[in-house]
Structures are given as structure tokens and as C-alpha cells.
Amino acid sequence: MTITLSSLMSKYEPKKLADYTTFNLKTMTVIHGYPRGTFTRPLLLVGPAGSGKTQLAKLLAAEIIPGMTSYDIRFVDAAEDPSVKTIKSISQTVHTYARNSQNLRVVILDEAHDFTPQAMAALKGLMTKFPSVDKGVFFILTTNHLSGISNPVRDRCLVLDVPATTVDDVLPMACRVLDGEGIPYAIEDLRIALSKDSSGLATFRDMWGVIEDIITRRSMP
Ligand SMILES: Nc1ncnc2c1ncn2[C@@H]1O[C@H](COP(=O)(O)OP(=O)(O)OP(=O)(O)O)[C@@H](O)[C@H]1O
Ligand SMILES: [Mg+2]
Fold first, then answer.
1. What is the pLDDT of residues 22-43, one digit of tens each?
2. 102 and 205 together in one domain
3. 100 C-alpha to center of ligand 2: Å?
4. What one-character DSSP code corresponds to residue 220?
5. Please, which of 19, 37, 126, 141 could form a disulfide with 44 given CB 3.0 to 4.6 Å?
6. Is 1 part of a structural domain of the chain?
């Protein structure tokens, strides 16, 4: 059977917050603190492209509402829906519809720097009404550009850096995938393939690109 990248991604990508690994102690303390109730403010994840912000937001949302339904989590990509209408629609949802047994909803605002100034102002208003998880809404924002988030919105959030990942962060995952699929490799070649340049940085997105190259080469006659 042909192995496809999407099948590998759905097989190996972290499914639960417990599968999410990082060497950054602060990140671990904060993300595991939300399900425990230690942290309650809206969360703003800031980091470079491919560092895993969107994925972390989804894993955290799923952890905070066990047994959630599609009504419990609202995912918005501000790059696609940047206007104030988006925030008005979220506001209507959180005010109108009954909540689940946890009395909680999660609103993920991905690429939040793309909201228009009017949308950002409306978001500030909505966050003022729902300033913490115990008020019934958990906002998780992600951005590559902290300067694109208005000061009043930023001030209402706990700002967590999701640092750029390195070859050492992604190498174990690459090995897990290749070992799991019985695909042979030389660890030093894999390390070189994952290193874009001399900085030592490498994203999980790059890692999937390298894996795709390896499986494509293997399937060639
Ligand atoms: N800890 C991890 N383990 C395995 N795969 C990961 C991990 N973190 C991220 N990934 C994978 O890396 C890819 C990039 O992650 P993601 O889209 O969350 O990054 P991002 O920071 O939101 O990037 P962008 O700024 O471009 O939106 C995804 O395929 C994701 O599933
Ligand atoms: Mg993202």
C-alpha cells in the first residue's frame, strides 16, 4: 500500500496535549496549567511560522473540554474572516446558545493580527465581558506578529512565546515516523536534511517535507 504524507500526519501528529512535547519549561507550565485551572486569562500564543501555535491551540481546546462537540469550539482564521462581522457572530454565539456541562466554550482566533481595527476593538469589548475561563469563554489567539495585536487585547491576555523549534526538537519525531513505518535511514543524513541552514532551527513543517521526500524517493522505480 502506498504511504501518503496525510496518512502519516494523521497517524503521528500529537492527538492529546500529553503528546505535545517541548523543552521549554514555561510553555509546559502554562499549557498544563489551563486544564488544572491555575491559569484562566485569554491565551495569546506568539511565535514564528511553523512553531506549532495552531496545533497547540487545538490540543489545548480539546483538553479543556473533554468530550466536546463541534458546538463547543469555534475556530476562526482571521486571515480568511478579518472583519468585525466575525467578532459579532462569535459574540452572538456565546451570548445566545446554551453551554455544555462544563459551562464553557473555546474560541480559537488563529492569525489574530489579521483582524481589522474595528474587529480588534470589538474583540476587546467581548473579552471584557468574558475576561477569564470561569466566565464561560476561553479565548486562544495565535499570531506571528505581536505588533499586529492591539494593546488592549494584548493586555487582557497571558502572552506565551512558542519559540522556534530546532533540529533537536524535531529529530525524535522524524525518527519515530520512519521507525514506525519501517523505513531505513542514517541518523546523520536525516539531521543534515532537517537543517535548513547553520542556525540549527527546523520546524515540524520542514520535517514533514523531509519525510515526504524520503517516501517519494522510495516509491520511485
Ligand atoms: N509538537 C509537535 N509534534 C509534531 N508535529 C507538530 C508539533 N507541533 C507542530 N507540529 C506540526 O507542524 C506543522 C506546523 O504546525 P502549526 O501549523 O501549528 O504551526 P504554526 O505555528 O501555527 O504556523 P503558522 O505561523 O505558519 O500558522 C503542523 O503540521 C503540525 O501538526
Ligand atoms: Mg498557524
1. 777 889 999 999 999 999 999 9
2. no
3. 27
4. -
5. 141
6. no
